[in-house]
Amino acid sequence: MPWIHNSCGEKGGVGKSIVSLALAEYFLRLKKVPLICEADRSNGDVGRAFEGKQRVIYPYFTEDSDQIDKADTLLDEVLASDTDAVVNSPAQSHRALVQWLSQGSADLALEEGVQLCFWFVTSGEYDSVTLFLESLQEFDGIPHILIRNRHFTDRLTYDYSDMEANESLGTALQAYKVPVIYLPRFGSADLDFLKAHSLTFGEAISREGGLTIAARSRVKRALTTFFSQLDALEIFTNGTSSNNGAEPAPKTPARKKRSRAKKSVGDSSKDGDS
After folding, report:
1. Among 68, 208, 211, 267, which is disulfide-ready with 215 (CB 3.0 to 4.6 Å)?
2. 3-state SS track over 147-196
3. What is the rounded CA–CA span in Å between residue 235 and residue 100?
4. Angle at the Cα of 100 (from 243 to 238), degrees rounded to 5?
5. Dihedral, 116, 149, 132, 60 alpha carbons, nearest 10
6. Distance (Å, rounded) from C-alpha 79 to C-alpha 66?
7. Model confidence over 88-142: pLDDT tens digits?
8. Which fold has domain 9-264?
9. Where are the domains of the chain?
10. SS3 262
11. Cα 194–199–203 angle (5° rounding)?
């Protein structure tokens, strides 16, 4: 059964594109060629990196009810090819995704075996974690994986994505059985080179990629660290994942009032990781 792996996070600049590129490379390491879905129309780094190298489609989610079908190609392509997909979502796409699902767009695809997984990338900041907690509630039944981007959490005094110091988050992670993955810190110059030359991670660490041997070594080590965590995930070890011990059967999401009240997340005075 094919999976749709949605790299999301709502907040801009948290590292969704890096996670999408890394997930795509991980599938290639597993000898699987994923469908690349570039939904970020303003900064389509992932689509550019894979364009002309493997199948790339460009669906997008919109709150405009007259254009709700713009994302439908995603499901058609996944079902037709019976292939896992990696979706690079833009910032602030949450409401559009809620609307798309709440109108029943994915019901038949889910009945045919398509499964969804949200890879929620967080900077560790308060608003980023608040959005994650809201996503857990709004998309109850859809598996989530929390990605802590060390590029941010290394330097934060208050790291709200630290489940050991944040009671609200820790409780939610346990209740929804959410795995926590750490995205290693990639060198900024190394990532800029990838983006400037539209390279995949696989190309970046090859001799033909153009990076220096030291840069290639750094990228390779970071990827190895990330991949070692993915190896232990249930969705890759046996093809299934679950919330509360059951097969994911997404409920029809309903709109909920978004809250930014600090008490919904809790406080943390623990220093960031070093």
Report:
1. 211
2. EEEHHHHCCCCCCCCCCCCCHHHHHHHHHHCCCEEEECCCCHHHHHHHHH
3. 24
4. 30
5. -50
6. 24
7. 998 888 889 888 988 899 999 999 999 999 999 999 999 999 999 999 999 988 9
8. Rossmann fold (3.40.50)
9. 9-264
10. helix
11. 110
Give residue-wise pLDDT tens across range 253-263.
443 444 433 34
The span from the CA of 265 to the CA of 267, in Å, is 7
The whole-angstrom separation of Cα 6 and Cα 117 is: 6
Which pLDDT belongs to residue 89? 92
> Could you tell me the CA-to-CA distances from 164 to 100, 151, 170 in Å, in that order?
35, 19, 6
Instruction: Look at residues 158, 176, 194 and name the one whose alpha carbon lies nearest to residue 25.
Output: 194
Structure tokens at 261: 């009240």
Percent of the residues in the chain that have a pLDDT greater than 90, as a whole number: 65
Query: How big is the CA angle at 12 (ends 102 and 104), to the nearest 5 degrees?
Result: 10
Q: How many residues does the chain have?
A: 274
Q: Which residue has the tokens 């709440």?
A: 102
Residue with tokens 């439908």: 72
Whole-number Å distance between alpha carbons of 198 and 180: 29
